[in-house]
Write a structure and sequence with these properties.
Radius of gyration: 19 Å
Shape: globular
Number of strands: 12
Distance between the termini: 49 Å
CATH topology of the domain at 2-134 and 166-191 and 253-266: Rossmann fold
Strand order of the largest sheet: 3-2-1-4-5-6-10
Number of helices: 11
Order of helices and strands: EHEEHEHEHEEHEEHEEHEHHHH
Largest sheet: 7 strands, parallel
Helix content: 40-55%
CATH architecture of the domain at 2-134 and 166-191 and 253-266: 3-Layer(aba) Sandwich
CATH class of the domain at 2-134 and 166-191 and 253-266: Alpha Beta
Length: 282
Amino acid sequence: MILVTGANGNVGAKTVRHLAGTNHKVRALVRDPAKASDLAGIAEVVAGDLGNPRTLAAAFGGVERAFVIAPVTPELETLEANAFQAAAEAGVKHIVKLSNFGSGAFPTSLWHWHKTSENALRRLGVPWTILRPTRFMSDAPFSWDLLIERGPLFEPLGDQPITLIDPHDVAAVAATVLTTDGHDGRIYDLTSAETLTGTQIAQKITAAIGRPVTFADPTPEAFRDTMTAVGLPELFTDLILQYCALVRDGRMRATTTVADLTGRRPRSYDEWLHDNAPTRTP
């Protein structure tokens, strides 16, 4: 039995489907099973809340391997610690953690949360693997609504390249690590094969949606003012600005890990846009 926490989320749901598609027994941990009806036919859906350890013992019972995914929140370390402890007490033999590209190398909040959680997992005494994906293609741009409404790709990236990854590729790697041996104690940085500047991303979006999109490189202050005006919570504005600062410092790089682990090349941003960008405009 393989347990996936956060199974209603972007990567969690895709991982459940990957595992079920290869005939593995999967248990999907969600806070509200009513919102996971699409998984009920392929997985055992169970209710549990990472914030409430008393709800986790039954979910982890009889599980051999677990994929721990927690939401992006200042409570991430506590939520994952609860999951790790429940897994250890249930006798889980291998824990895979979804972390973030740059964890441990970047000192700011999200990356610090993940690094602290990674350290807790290492101390647990249970075999572990850590996945560190870069920015999801589904978060590029951070807001399609804002791009469609206001026109430009509005991110303070400077002229430095970023790396992206399709969440499907993250799920494919997770499924591979959860179902094959040889991954104990390994940390995998996950990206697509390409690096792209803001201008190149805007050009690709232009081709995908059929109307011109330019790249605007605002100051961090102008970006914050705009995000405040459109109602983005301050926490997420802070996280985006921290990420953009790392990009401007030239901290992003591409890896071959997806191809090395899955035996196929990762999907490109063009391919993701073809399947997911808003309907082409005249």
